């Protein structure tokens, strides 16, 4: 069973990409720079 692995903000799939985990949410680097 695969869990959904998308950016919390833009919903882009994060599979195989770099991301940041912030406050229990996964966030792509683009959105991390913009929102965090």
TrEMBL record:
Keywords: Repeat
Gene3D superfamilies associated with the record: Cysteine Rich Protein
Protein name (record): Four and a half LIM domains 1
Domain FHL1/2/3/5 N-terminal LIM: 6-33
InterPro entries per record: Fhl1, LIM_FHL1/2/3/5_N
Protein's GO biological process: muscle organ development
Organism taxonomic ancestry: Eukaryota, Metazoa, Chordata, Craniata, Vertebrata
Superkingdom to which the source organism belongs: Eukaryota
One Pfam short name: LIM_FHL2-3_N
């Amino acid at each position: 069973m695969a869990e959904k692995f998308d950016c919390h903000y833009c919903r882009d799939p994060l599979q195989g990409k770099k991301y940041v985990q912030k406050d229990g949410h996964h966030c792509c680097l683009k959105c991390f720079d913009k929102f965090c």
